[in-house]
Amino acid sequence: MGARGVFITLEGADGCGKSTQAALLETRLAALGREVVRLREPGGTAISEKVRALLLDPANEEMSPECELLLYEASRAQLTRQVIEPALARGAVVLCDRYYDSTYAYQAGGRGLDETLVRQSNVLGSCGRVPDRTLVLDLDPATAFARATSGGADRMEAEGLAFQERVRAAYLRLANEEPTRVRVVDASGAEGEVTARLLGSLEDLVPGAER
Hints:
Layout: E1 6-11, H1 18-30, E2 36-40, H2 46-56, H3 65-89, E3 93-97, H4 100-110, H5 115-125, E4 133-138, H6 141-148, H7 161-177, E5 182-186, H8 191-200
Parallel strand pairs: 1-3, 1-4, 2-3, 4-5
Helix pairs in contact: 1-8, 2-3, 3-5, 4-5, 4-7
């Protein structure tokens, strides 16, 4: 198809349905004849998965916000250099469940770290790689939180509903700041309905996605 690589990220508060939608989008985009590389953040490489285990382990409750920030950036840098950049170079569609906007929403919005510091750290951790499109799945925070914690809570989910509300507010601020890149998508309703909304937000980047 002579297609260029496309970098798509899925964002949203815990329990919004990102992982489910990432799998559905992978199937739909692959049906167009594109190579689709589906990833999760933190994770996606042997090194990054080890960092993920540290970050989400409830036993690490003493972890400082600054340590948390740096671990996320370290995991991201490895994923970007090892997997994302090579995939984009060969023309693949990279579909990543979270990227640096999560760090802005959780560490600046949720934790209250200085926004300038977090944004500068994101440039380093992403190696300057900016997603072509970021889709924020937006769902009522109470509904999403109940969903996310129904089977127990990891270290981030254990921060509670008020934390998740701050995260959502940060995502909405991002969408206002960067409306071309960041699109807010209603995550309520049936899975297929949400998938259709997401595909509609990708038609300009991946022709045929909406069909």
